[in-house]
């Protein structure tokens, strides 16, 4: 039985595939999208979203906000390899659940995903 359903969004296919494999190996069902628009059109059944911050068509902050407007129970974890001062605070203000700076460890990624699932389950229990 899968632990949950995660959508990984990154315009870099190698990064998207790598993160997807890590999560699949940890027991999650993983879907992938290469853009914010693709992610928005494939939210059905998704429980958590991990998205890159910088993407060509829509950045991760806009994506987080748009997902929250559609379904506020889907936690969005924003990732970046190019952090700037205050990016994480801005991401949280725009609706992100948490933030990860690349490169991150497997433990950091899994911890963030598990915290997001716990938060989502607590909302569903209400």
Q: Can you tell me about this structure?
A:
The protein is an alpha/beta fold and 126 residues long. It has one domain: Response regulator (Rossmann fold). It contains five helices and five strands. Strands 2-1-3-4-5 form a five-stranded parallel β-sheet, with helices on both faces. It is globular. The mean pLDDT is 95.
Structural class: alpha/beta
Mean pLDDT level: 95
Domain count: the total is 1
Give the biggest beta sheet.
Answer: 5 strands, parallel
| CATH homologous superfamily heading | Response regulator
Radius of gyration: 13 Å
CATH architecture tag: 3-Layer(aba) Sandwich
Low-pLDDT residue spans:
none
CATH topology: Rossmann fold
Please give the alpha-carbon distance between the first and last residues. Answer: 24 Å
Relative strand content: 15-25%
Q: How would the global form be characterised?
A: globular
Keywords:
alpha/beta; globular; 126 residues; 19% strand
Secondary structure topology:
Layout: E1 5-9, H1 13-25, E2 29-33, H2 36-40, E3 48-52, H3 60-70, E4 76-80, H4 87-93, E5 98-101, H5 106-124
Parallel strand pairs: 1-2, 1-3, 3-4, 4-5
């Amino acid at each position: 039985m899968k632990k949950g359903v995660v959508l990984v969004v990154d315009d870099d296919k190698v990064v998207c595939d790598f993160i997807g494999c890590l999560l699949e190996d940890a027991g999650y069902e993983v879907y992938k999208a290469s853009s914010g628009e693709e992610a928005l059109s494939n939210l059905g059944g998704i429980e958590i979203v991990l998205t890159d911050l910088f993407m060509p068509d829509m950045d991760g902050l806009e994506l987080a906000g748009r997902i929250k407007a559609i379904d506020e129970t889907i936690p969005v974890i924003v990732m970046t390899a190019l952090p700037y001062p205050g990016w994480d605070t801005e991401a949280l203000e725009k609706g992100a659940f948490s933030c990860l700076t690349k490169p991150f460890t497997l433990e950091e990624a899994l911890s963030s995903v598990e915290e997001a699932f716990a938060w989502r389950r607590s909302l569903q229990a209400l």
